[in-house]
Design a protein that fits this description.
472 residues, alpha/beta, Rossmann fold, 2 domains, 10-stranded mixed β-sheet, 16 helices, 16 strands, binds the ligand O=P(O)(O)OC[C@H]1O[C@H](O[C@H]2O[C@H](CO)[C@@H](O)[C@H](O)[C@H]2O)[C@H](O)[C@@H](O)[C@@H]1O, binds uridine-5'-diphosphate, Trehalose-6-phosphate synthase, alpha,alpha-trehalose-phosphate synthase (UDP-forming) activity, transferase, EC 2.4.1.15, Trehalose_OtsA
């Protein structure tokens, strides 16, 4: 494979997704699997299992040509690392919710302990020419820990969530230690220019570092920090939308709607996704447009997520009550305005649901990227496409400028956008869809992977960048 040459790729992430025969995997897993297969690489991560006492024993497996190496964690590890520091401390803070961020020394201790465990697991597997690619906020210190074990390999890090403004980040105890750890990598990637800009701002203002184009220097160490938006497998997703499973689902949904227009939302049940604001915006639409009652249904698919974390239990209870209240107020014996569904669907069925929806309503308060927005576009019928209403605060809004971009905090804007989308002429729908689909197809998941790994390959093992890789 051209980007990696003869080097093996080693990917390390919290979750590992093994290829299955029916290909039912997320886009990230598909993209990484392809690169791992072609480079005979390894994907390292948590097995998702809990063991009584940590053994460090590695479970090796090979499925469809992709090797995985996983470890089990102890209950205390999962509490302090995954539920604790990752999802009670970093996730809310990095999504600008310092009101929800909890800090406890135990969380930070558990986070570092688990990262040491991943470093111990990965270290013996690493060969000198391997390129190492660490994914996401669960694993920020891992690169530093691998360097401490003597690995001078090319190492990259990709952050899948936003990078917060400096004024918020400084509320984290030991914030500079966390940021300093990123300087162990050679290339650090973010989804958007905005997150990259905030990272550079922190390094310059808080740490006295300097920025020169993509190069960011702190003390003796210079790394590259780039914006590299993740995409989906657009062609494959468009095909999935006309598969038998998708068509069955499409028919089932359409039959149940009886000519009503469907608005669809698909999100993990997470406070960052703006579901409460979405329901309130839709309620505002119902209040302002009684003539539209019975013509419209909002289907919100929201599989529960991170249910051991209290803020997730709270948002779930809030949404249960809100959906009940809105339905109670507006329903009739033969019409329910919100279908609120707490189960997840596999890709093909989901693609059929997206295609059956006249409107995709994607309104996170803050989101690293949001792949659902791109999937909704890819699943549409080119001859009769639906309209995407997208929060300006999703990373995806930087690319999908032909969506109806809204401020998710404003119920009026949401109500107006729904009204506009319901009556949008076919010509305008087609024009907007074509422009968005061009972007989804061009900057797809392979583009993302290749752009990042090419940058990493251009770094020499001593950390210098080959001349031709320097940006103009
Ligand atoms: O693994 P979980 O705790 O169940 O969470 C699922 C994933 O959520 C986050 O996704 C992010 O990555 C997406 C792809 O780049 C991006 O589109 C989205 O905006 C992000 O929120 C998380 O960052 C992943 O690590 C989780 O696996
Ligand atoms: O019932 C569901 C709900 C969501 N997803 C997938 O979960 C991913 C969600 O990614 P996104 O970037 O939108 O948000 P995240 O959950 O990663 O924050 C998308 O690929 C969805 O298709 C799914 O397969 N089934």
């Amino acid at each position: 494979m051209e980007a990696l040459g003869m080097s093996r790729l080693i990917v390390i992430s919290n979750r590992v997704s093994r290829p299955t025969k029916n290909g039912n995997q997320g886009g990230l897993a598909v993209a990484l699997s392809q690169a791992l297969r072609e480079s005979r690489g390894i994907w390292v991560g948590w097995s998702g299992e809990i063991t009584e006492n940590f053994t460090g024993q590695i479970g090796f497996s090979e499925d469809e040509g992709v090797k995985t190496a996983t470890i089990d964690l102890e209950e205390q590890d999962v509490d302090e690392y995954y539920n604790g520091y990752a999802n009670k401390t970093l996730w809310p803070l990095f999504h600008f919710r310092i009101d929800l961020a909890e800090y406890a020394r135990d969380f930070e201790g558990g986070y570092n302990r688990v990262n040491q465990r991943f470093a111990d697991t990965t270290s013996p597997l690493i060969e000198p020419e391997d390129i190492i690619w660490v994914q996401d906020y669960h694993m920020i210190p891992l690169g530093r820990m691998l360097r401490d074990r003597g690995h001078d390999n090319r190492m990259g890090f990709f952050l899948h969530i936003p990078w917060p403004p400096t004024r918020l980040l400084v509320s984290l105890p030991h914030h500079s230690k966390l940021v300093q750890a990123l300087f162990a990598y050679d290339v650090v990637g973010f989804h958007t220019e905005e997150w990259l800009e905030s990272f550079r701002h922190y390094v310059e203002r808080e740490m006295g570092g300097s920025v020169d184009g993509d190069f960011v220097t702190l003390g003796k160490r210079t790394i590259q920090a780039i914006a590299c938006p993740i995409g989906i497998n657009a062609q494959e997703y468009a095909s999935a939308a006309v598969s038998d499973a998708a068509k069955d689902m499409y028919e089932k949904v359409r039959r149940s709607l009886q000519d009503r227009a469907m608005i669809v939302g698909v999100d993990r049940l997470d406070y960052s996704k703006g579901l409460e604001e979405r329901f309130n915006g839709y309620a505002r639409f119902l209040k302002d447009h009684s003539e539209q009652h019975r013509n419209v249904v909002l289907t919100q698919i929201a599989p529960p997520s991170r249910g051991e974390v209290e803020s997730y239990q709270q948002i779930r209870a809030t949404l249960d009550a809100l959906a009940g209240r809105i339905n109670g107020e507006y329903s009739d014996v033969d019409w329910t305005p919100i279908r609120y569904v707490n189960q997840g669907y596999p890709r093909d069925k989901l693609a059929g649901i997206y295609r059956a929806a006249k409107i995709g309503l994607v309104t996170p308060l803050r989101d690293g990227m949001n792949l659902v927005a791109k999937e909704y576009v890819a699943a549409q019928n080119p001859d009769d496409p639906g309209v995407l209403i997208l929060s300006r605060f999703a990373g995806a809004a930087q690319q999908l400028k032909d969506a109806l971009l809204i401020n998710p905090y404003s119920p009026e804007e949401m109500s107006d956008a729904i009204t506009r989308a319901l009556s949008m002429p076919l010509d305008e729908r087609k024009r907007r869809w074509r422009a968005m689909m061009d972007s989804v197809e061009k900057q797809d998941i392979s583009w993302w992977r290749q752009r990042f790994t090419e940058r990493l390959m251009a770094v020499q093992r001593n950390g210098e960048v080959k001349q031709e890789a320097q940006p103009a």
